[in-house]
Specification:
By secondary structure, this protein is an alpha/beta fold. The chain contains nine helices and ten strands. α5 packs across α6. It is globular, with a radius of gyration of 18 Å. It binds adenosine-5'-triphosphate.
């Protein structure tokens, strides 16, 4: 199956954990994933003469929820692509735990603003698109996690935008990734659906324990969800701020509003 998937598709859908040897499958936790740390040391990325990232140093501890904000063109997606191994840095080092990132990373999954579902595959087949032994069990569990257990046999066309994003989230989670990269995943949703997706993501992350990196233009979203926010500006990190408040966070909390102000000043 993987032979007919493009490189990008494989980075999105990956291999199911069932492709591991049987002994590792039996030992692998079903509900909780092992978050991986992400470490960048002096990472530079150029496209021709245009240097987009000017030597980034960043350590994201295992299990942390990091939000990345910044102006359009600031290099946020470029950073995600490097972490996923879709692109290589021009200089510097990128590690997942102690392992150098060279090429596509099976432990890293991506979710985008558009769900990128295959229209001629039913929901369950979109979630388990990479197949592998036992794929259906993993896909059904991921669908249950996102609240769509009863929609497994539906076609993508009959789903709402929010439901499609839930399927995309299930597809990203089905292989139990150590790192989930979220590139503006809620940007096209209405406010209510967006709020529901926030709650869902926080609940699933608390249960599973993966490391999450969220790109967003919405500073309020970053502050509502993340443990920490960085601002990417002109190829460097202009602000790196922890958000220690408990969740759920109250909109209008003065401490959060003050952090939002600092972020907006640094963008
Ligand atoms: N494959 C590429 N070839 C040439 N230039 C590129 C390539 N990918 C990105 N760039 C350039 O790198 C810069 C950063 O792009 P990137 O997509 O990382 O920004 P971003 O912060 O994610 O922007 P946005 O918020 O609009 O999505 C831009 O100037 C973009 O044109």
């Amino acid at each position: 199956m993987n032979a007919v998937l493009s490189r990008l598709e494989r980075s999105v859908v990956g291999d199911l954990p069932a492709r591991q040897p049987a002994a590792r499958q039996a030992a692998a936790p079903v509900a909780r994933d092992r978050g991986l740390s992400v470490t960048l040391t002096g990472v530079r990325k150029s496209f021709g003469a245009h240097e987009v990232l000017h030597g980034l140093d960043l350590h994201v501890p295992a299990g942390q929820f990091l939000a990345v904000v910044g102006r359009s063109g600031g290099g946020k997606t470029t950073l995600m692509r490097l972490i996923a191994g879709l692109d290589a840095p021009t200089a510097g080092h990128l590690r997942l735990d102690e392992r150098e990132v060279t090429g596509l990373q099976p432990d890293v999954r991506l979710m985008f603003q558009d769900a990128r579902l295959v229209p001629w595959k039913r929901v369950i087949d979109n979630v388990g698109i990479a197949r592998g032994l036992n794929w259906r069990t993993h896909a059904e569990a991921a669908l249950a996690d996102v609240g769509l257990a009863t929609r497994a046999r539906d076609w993508p066309a009959v789903l709402s935008g929010g439901q499609r994003q839930r399927v995309a989230l299930a597809r990203a989670l089905v292989s139990h990734p150590g790192v989930l990269l979220l590139d503006e995943p809620f940007g096209a949703l209405d406010a209510m659906t967006r709020a529901e997706m926030h709650t869902l993501l926080l609940r699933i992350r608390a249960a599973r324990g993966f490391t999450a990196l969220l790109i967003t233009h919405d500073v309020a979203e970053a502050v509502a969800l993340a443990d920490r926010v960085i601002v990417l500006r002109q190829g460097g990190i202009s602000l790196d701020v922890d958000i220690p408040q408990d969740r759920p966070r109250r909109h209008g909390d003065p401490a959060l509003a003050a952090i939002e102000e600092r972020i907006l000043a640094a963008v």
